[in-house]
Amino acid sequence: MAVDLLERDPFLRMLDDLLRQAGEGHGQVASISGEAGIGKTSLVERFLEQHQAPTRTLWGACEALFTPRPLGPLYDIARQTKSPLRALLDGEVNRATLFATVLDELTRDPAPTIVVIEDILDPEYLERQRNQKDIVRRIASLDHMEAAPQVDPPGKEDLPK
Questions:
Q1: CA distances from 77 to 20, 58, 89 (A)
Q2: Going by DSSP bridges, is the β-strand pair 144-151/113-118 parallel, antiparallel, or unpaired?
Q3: Every domain of the chain and the residues it spans
Q4: How many angstroms separate the CA atoms of 75 and 41, rounded?
């Protein structure tokens, strides 16, 4: 039996609506942020429990290291797929080819794909990166949804813009 999530129904309904739009071919990106321990991952897990079928879920995580591994969540996702993604990550391929392969993987299955990338500490920084913007723009044309639970880091207001 699932534990009740207090005051999370509006958020679950919003995620339900985003998934419905993704299933109609209008890809979505949801950013779920808040303080550590507030229940971001529990919210995403509950959402995924409610949508096990007909969706496919791929889960990756950023590492809370001083120097996280580049493209770490894509390595996690590559282990869950049968695509050439892992070989490309380990090789000397350009980013355009790498991200094209990620997009191909997202469209491989006829069911909507939910990608969860956990523990993004500074989403504004990621959004400023050219490749990130490009892949988010392309997600909008797919039957795909990405959820990114993230922790607001202490002193976030002091981070360079």
A1: 23, 6, 11
A2: parallel
A3: 26-153
A4: 20
Q: What are the tokens at 79?
A: 């282990």
Average pLDDT of the chain is 76
Q: In terms of C-beta density within 10 A (0-12 exposed, 13-18 middle, 19 or more buried), how is residue 122 classed?
A: middle
Alpha-carbon distance values, 97 to 15, 16, 32 (Å): 30, 32, 29
Length of the chain: 161
The pLDDT confidence band at residue 27, using thresholds 50, 70 and 90, is confident
Q: Which amino acid makes up residue 84?
A: P
Backbone angle region of 25, left / alpha / beta, with phi > 0 → left and psi within -120 to 50 → alpha: left
Which CATH superfamily, name and number, covers 26-153? P-loop containing nucleotide triphosphate hydrolases (3.40.50.300)
Whole-model pTM: value is 0.73
Q: Which helix (H) or strand (E) holds 21?
A: helix 9-23
Output the six-digit token pair for 21.
């739009």
